[in-house]
Amino acid sequence: MPKYNFNIMWFFGRNHMNQLKVSFGKRLQQLRSECGITQEQLANAVDLTVESISNIERGVYGPKFDTLEKIAVALQVPVKKLFEFDST
Known about the structure:
Oligomer: single chain
Number of strands: 0
Distance between the termini: 36 Å
Order of helices and strands: HHHHH
Shape: globular
Mean pLDDT: 87
Low-confidence stretches: none
Number of helices: 5
């Protein structure tokens, strides 16, 4: 399989990626609140630190793919529901 030198930041642009992280973080915070669980409870459920959950919710950085599934399981939602936010 050929390897490609693909820079996702170049493809989507830095501002778009930052907005995606912020939107995802807000959605995560909303779903977590709706489930009635704290950042600490979510962090324990997905094997992350509270600081990591806080950083994700604030859009500082996004979760890894394997963490997405753990978050969805902890919140008892399909993974796609984590991305149901207004992208504007």
